[in-house]
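Minutes, structural biology subgroup

Action item carried over from last meeting: produce the structure token record for Protein-lysine N-trimethyltransferase SMYD5 (Oncorhynchus mykiss). EB confirmed the sequence was re-checked against the source entry. Recorded below for completeness.
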Amino acid sequence: MAAPQDDMFSLCVDPTKVSSCVEVRFIDKIKGKGLFAKKAIKKGDTIFIERPLVSAQFLWNSLYKYKACEFCLRALETAEDNARRLSGIPDLSLPHPELCKVHPELHQACPQCQVMYCSNECRQAAADQYHRALCLGTSQEDPNHPISKLKDAWRSMHYPPETSSIMLMARMVATVKQGQLTVLRTLFTTALYDDHLNRWFTPEGFRSLFSLVGTNGQGIGTSSLSQWVHACDALALTSQQREQLDSFIDQLYKDVEKETGDFLNCEGSGLFLLQSACNHSCIPNAAASFPSNNFLLHLSALSDISPGEEIGISYLDCCQCDRSRHSRHKILRDNYLFICSCPKCVSQMDELDLTSDEEEEEEEEGGEAEGDDMEDEMTDV
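Output recorded by EB:
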């Protein structure tokens, strides 16, 4: 059941201000609801900031020692520790360490299971919301605990890279297609069943819950190193100092790429009430980011937005948005179960149907540009 209109703004920072700026409208039976501007919004403006209804770090990401707060997903490593691990250089020292906003002295562990939080506030919030039911206590390392089995089953069906929400969704669809949903539902029931929640444990209820996460989940990325780099960019330096700092950061990126590759950030996903009202567009006028190094989603305008205009985000990454209409439709149809009718797709209706495989061959022939974009990807959390 859809959330009431007032509830759609309940998890936003300053919901009264946000509700005066945007509204959720029903469009039609195919698209459902959408988010629309009530006032003029300028390019670069933050439209709203929202915390998730629920969020979680990806399981492989956690297993590979990407340390994040169990509640808000804030990166727990200092920027320097993060840089050392990612680069494989144990004695690396970052200039301007005072720019790191991670405070290990504030971190707290659950007294029972020892999972870590960035603060007492997050530990208490997690306990109040869900952790009492999920805390493994002294069974945290027991592979035979039902929740441990559930996590292992999920990992076996969802291999890295988990950084792509599209690939995550593709694997969820494949799980249903191949009949593995029954396995997950059985383990889910064993771990969490309660009589008053029984409707979520029926095959139909679990499928609905699974679909809700699959179609509305938003990827979350946090990084103390990225936050430190952004802070360095804002420093007032002489030309020589700027050149030296940029040279250091460039070399750090190269070392990280060599040692770690694409696995750079603490990664997870969350369900956001208001953000979930944003429909896809292949020419989006808004984008989500996580500049606070936690699960707070910032939706910002990519272009000027007029009153009454729909606010659209892209479910595709930048490279996928640049592909042919046929390829974009294939990705969206396979993973999100809809056919896009945004202005870009409508304008390209008469184009030849170039297949994804053909485009991938072209990309392989072009091939060297991908590495040039790595710095932007590392800092664009």
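Discussion: The longest helix spans residues 239-260.
Next step: EB to file the record with the rest of the batch.
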